[in-house]
Amino acid sequence: MKALVYTNPNEVQLQDRSYPEPADGEVVLRIDAVGICGSDMHAYHGHDPRRKPGLVLGHEFAGTIADGPGAGRRVTGNPLIACGVCDYCAQGRDNLCSNRTMVGMTRPGAFAEFMAIPARCLIDLPDALEPLRAALTEPAATALHALNLSMRALHRPLPECRVLVLGGGAIGLLSALLLRTYGAREVVLAETNPLRRASAARHAGCAVYDPAAVATAAGAFDHVIDAVGARITRNAAFEAIKPGGVIMHIGLQDWASEIDMRRLTLAEITLIGTYTYTTADLRATVAALYNGAFGDLAWVEERSLDEGAAAFADLHHGRTAAAKIVLRPH
């Protein structure tokens, strides 16, 4: 079968790989669509020691069961493979599982024609939900999980809040779209790439600006979503947040940086970290995508798996307006 393999920093190659051999309790999926995630790009750049050369990346997938129980079912799935028995799994917080492994990190991922995965990770898709839209389940669930956490901490209802989203990649744009669905009236998005700024303004209907050219308004926002997670965006989030506001930190671009703990304390700022989603979030996101909660997704670009190396290069060089490229192996 064909598979897109991470071979060296800034290099992926289309190679022939053996058809997957499923372990007990696993099925083989025919991959119908798979998205390129920011964490795939992080690995591509050689910045993720957990993802080593020789690995098939990819964890944002929609597919059809090819071999195993339920053959013919259209599914997406939870790429986080939880143990099911630890305290976090017992609480329904499987994203924090103490023993989790992950598709496209600790085992071969979905940038391939076929992939093995435990059957218990699968989530059925509505017949009318096309593969490209279904492949957005994983990143959209990340935005949904984060925003649901934020709304528990905000002191006023979301429609009354002024919200800043830092980053116009897939998570930032999906967050902006979901904010609109949830009733937020004032949403501003900061993005340095002019192509992505234009796309966000067109598809999410929010105000946009270039933070490299325009200073972020100090103390102007009730809620800030950092969908980048770099030192500069963390600083910008603390600059932009009002006293008593909520910062949601999603992005993982930089591993460490200083934050203004004195301001966080004196201004009673709430800083929340979020990691991925639960299985319940994924199921809710499938329904939300089916019901149009994230819009028409016209900003998503579709390419064949054969064009995968070029897609990675285009994302690396900022040559595409698309916040998400979805690859079709078949």
Structure characterization notes:
With 330 residues, the protein is an alpha/beta fold. The relative contact order is 0.16. The model has no long low-confidence stretch (mean pLDDT 96). It is built from 10 helices and 18 strands. The strands form 4 sheets. Strands 3, 5, 6, 9, 10, 17 and 18 form a 7-stranded mixed β-sheet that branches.
Features of this protein?
alpha/beta, 6-stranded parallel β-sheet, Quinone Oxidoreductase, Chain A, domain 1, single chain, globular, 18 strands, 2 domains, 28% strand, 7-stranded mixed β-sheet, 10 helices, Rossmann fold, 330 residues
Number of strands: 18
- Percent of residues in β-strands: 25-35%
Structural class comes to alpha/beta
Instruction: Give the SSE string.
Output: EEEHEEEEHEEEHHEHEHEEHEHEHEHE
Largest sheet: 7 strands, mixed
First-residue to last-residue Cα separation: 11 Å
Mean model confidence by pLDDT: 96
CATH topology of the largest domain: Quinone Oxidoreductase, Chain A, domain 1
Give the oligomeric state. single chain
Helix content: 25-40%
Topology record:
Elements lengths: L1 E7 L2 E6 L9 E10 L2 H7 L10 E2 L3 E8 L6 E4 L2 E2 L5 H4 L10 E2 L11 E5 L3 E3 L6 H4 L2 H17 L8 E5 L3 H12 L4 E5 L3 H11 L2 E3 L11 E6 L4 H10 E9 L11 H6 L3 E4 L5 H12 L9 E5 L3 H10 L6 E5 L2
Parallel strand pairs: 11-12, 11-14, 12-13, 14-15, 15-16, 17-18
Antiparallel strand pairs: 1-2, 1-4, 3-5, 3-9, 3-18, 5-6, 6-10, 7-8
Helix pairs in contact: 4-5, 4-9
